Amino acid sequence: MIERKQKEVRLSLPSKGRLAEDTLNFLEECGLKVYKPNLRQYEALIPDLPGLVVLFQRPADIVVSVRDGSVDFGISGIDVIEEHRGDNGDVIILHDQLNYGRCRLTLAVPESWSNVQDMADLVSHCKSLKRPMRVATRYPGLTSRFLSQNKIEHSLITAEGTLETAPSIGYADTISDLVSSGQTLRDNRLKPVTGGVILESQAALIANRHILRQNPQALQFARHLLEFFEAHLRASENLSIFANMRGPSPEAIADRLFNQTAISGLQGPTVSKIIVRQDDPNWYAVHIIVQRKELFKAVSELRAIGGSGVVVTPVSYIFEEEPPRYLAMLKAIEPLETGKLMDNS
Length: 345
Description:
Helix content: 25-40%
Distance between the termini: 23 Å
Number of helices: 13
Number of strands: 15
CATH architecture of the largest domain: 3-Layer(aba) Sandwich
Structural class: alpha/beta
CATH class of the largest domain: Alpha Beta
Low-confidence stretches: 336-345
Order of helices and strands: EHEEHEHEEHEHEHEHEEHHEHEEHEHH
CATH superfamily of the largest domain: Periplasmic binding protein-like II
CATH topology of the largest domain: D-Maltodextrin-Binding Protein, domain 2
Strand order of the largest sheet: 2-3-1-4-11-5
Largest sheet: 6 strands, mixed
Strand content: 25-35%
């Protein structure tokens, strides 16, 4: 691991492209906006996390920097992480589902290969070539392992830039590349191979395992990052609902809610007395958290049991008692005195 003169904790982010923009947006949505005082410099900070220095690098360089210890944390794609993390276990993935930057590394062949639809067809076709299949890719490690596992004799052509033209130009038979919608493949008369997905990818948070073991300050930042990421991601899947309801007591109102399927809340509903000016005094306010995907069902169930004045608002954060991924990280960086590590957190 590289020795660093400076004591600051470093987080490296993608420097350009769609992943860079989405990462900055994600951090801001988590309440961790990046402030870059000089747009020409590759250094910034997060005001809400004083002491954490933000650097900007290419996605592959982020992984290498975390691996060699010159950077403590990084955000990059799973595809790049798995290609460059190495086999010594220095790079640990703290969060592998940040829910942006989604794509898949997959094999694609020319549409003219009408006899090739799935991996079994590709194996047969490669045997008929009577030579190694030439594959153009930016991911030689992942691609070679996948092809070897499927017993496909191959020759890799490591290339940068546009790969989709490689088969039509003639310097490769097939490609292994990132695909999202698949439109670029179709534009270049290529088709994905069924069963040929090498890796599903999205943005992920990584750290250097040894630094987490040895540096209590880095461990503290790991907790902060995971707390905010987890709380924001969980909140983004839920909505807060308020409704008014008549009933003889809070317990009676709660019983109605518990008899439904979408409106029981996280641990249960909050039911509080409404102070009315006149008329029926038995009015209560109900507050529940529901899954965003079940909003229509939740509103329908509330109406069915007498709910009115339903108000729906987004949720910014839902914090757990302990972030599950932080506890998983502590377990992953053993063997050390886990109790000591947790005391430092």
